[in-house]
Amino acid sequence: MDGMYCKIKPLLTMRKQHIAILLSTLLFTYMGIAQSTGDFTDSRDGQTYKTISFENAIMGTTVIWMAQNLNYKVQSSYAYDDNESNRKELGLLYTWEAAKKACPNGWHLATDSEWSMLVSEFGGIDKAGEALKSLNGWEEGGNGTNSSGFNALPAGVRRNNGYDVQGYFGFWWSSTPTGEEGKAWLWDISYGGPDMSIKSKVWHFDGDTLGGLSVRCVRD
Questions:
Q1: Alpha-carbon distance 190 to 130, whole Å?
Q2: Among 6, 80, 102, 103, who pairs with 107 as Cys (CB 3.0-4.6 Å)?
Q3: Of all helices (H) and strands (E), which one includes residue 107?
Q4: Pick from 180, 203, 18: nearest CA to 124
Q5: Backbone angles phi, psi at 134, to 5 degrees
């Protein structure tokens, strides 16, 4: 009898583990989306970036994003506050023209439609920020759950007269022009603020080629 119990106990443990894995899979495939992680090493400077793959079973497509802001130095790219120590965590801020050229071979600056799809997969502009934002780094209780694995950081912005809103906002270029000279669509995730009931809103609007914003690359 004791021997039988010893055989049954591991079986029950395996069954529990199987159920846990199944529940995890169901969580990640909610609304037909499956997620997986990986990494990529940029041969230009040897930096390794975490990646996140979003597979939409309904659409039959897989999109692989860098799960970190790009940190490859090109002309017209800037460390926040011109402090090189900020690059390791936040990456660099790029003008739009620089951003379009900065991604490594086999990758490209995310398009507006790719951003739209990502935000839609995690609940739309009123909810996606919570899933996309990092667990730490956002001021005044604005941290996210990072359930997406995207790890969006509040790297701020470079303006004509200096740097601003690091810890409160993250801004990312898309490669898609708005149709107006020198303007492209960009995506902004905010900390939310202490008086806002929604701390996860994602804004979609156009910006010009001045200043500097963060960059996320997508595999071709």
A1: 10
A2: 103
A3: strand 107-109
A4: 203
A5: -65, 165
